[in-house]
Amino acid sequence: MCYTHAMRFLADLHVHSRYSRATSREMTPEKLWMWAQIKGINVIGTGDFTHPLWLKELTIKLKRAQNGLYTLKEDFRPKDVPPKVKSEPYFMVSGEISTIYKKNGKLRKIHTLILLPTIEHALKVQLALSRMANLDVDGRPVLGLDVKDLLKIVTDICQDAIFIPAHAWTPHFSVFGSESGFDSLRECFEELTNCICAIETGLSSNPPMNWRVSDLDRLTLLSNSDAHSPIRIGREANIFDCELSYDSIREAIVTKRGFVGTCEFFPEEGKYHFDGHRECGVVLSPKETMRLNYLCPRCGEKLTVGVMHRVEVLADREDGKIPEGASSYVSLVPLIEIISEALGVSPSSSVAESEYLKLISSIGNEFYILTEADIDEISKYSFLVAQGVSKVRSGDIKISPGYDGVYGKIRIFDDEKGLEKKRQWTLFD
To answer: Looking at residues 47-75, what average pLDDT do you find?
Structure first.
């Protein structure tokens, strides 16, 4: 799959700023701009437009481009972007909002991704929501408001806004979540359901899982990183083939024309793919959970029902059925994870980071390395990483599914003893 066509580009529209809870201090406009290039992202969300200090910073550091998106002003651009990855990434105004409320006798907790055409529109939405909550507390604010009412507020302010149920299957905070969600979009949004043109599938599900629910056929299935640190940017992303502008991106999301597909996590790696109980280290398939009457076999407490289970409950199609008009997708493993396993080090280690930056500086951006770079070219710098990239491209990997907030564990190399010999040989060489 080629990402270098003049009209084809990658967009990661859901990230956070340093003002969100549990988020790296590195999440600044400068770092977003730089890491978008390192990853190969052409359009990146600003994140957190509701936070007053962040929006003020965006107003100072960004400027409007002719295509309706935003660029980082020259004075704020980092000088240390590797020449191999230099490009001109654009920003799209975005933010995530949490709504918590009661409906139909049940507590609902729904997260929403909102995309806006301008910072001026963001200021108007921010003003409206500031009357309901203290927006200074968190970059992802919590509102005691029906998500349907939030939809009406946003679209009344800006008809060109894009309102997307975020990580739609996550158990605790999503429109279809097992703990606090709904069984259908119509149950949630009622007469405003047709205003929803897309959902974000989240890290723990992929398009084939969503294809099992025919009610979702009309929607565009988006994938974004929901990044809380720069290295996480682009771990999932969207592929567009249209003009690089807000209006064209919006049109592609609404109509699917110009929307090619997504770059995906392997869903098993997501934190909520299977059922389980983190405190007891129990991970279960949907069938096992049902057999146990949804109770942990070790402590007897209620299990967290994961995404795979929830899809099974709502599905009206057999697995493997591809609906008409379905978009394409490609499953990837982040390059830093391939490097860490190949070298036998932690993904957060200085060794892995050094190898990552060496490959990026020598070959090109991460998406290029993962999907297009010749394996022989990668081998010139790291034989083991090249082997790992090749195995990921062919799907020759094993994954222990994630559950109850625990990421799944990917295993790319089978023969640990043989791998260790290759590591030693590589270091000696």
So the answer is: 98
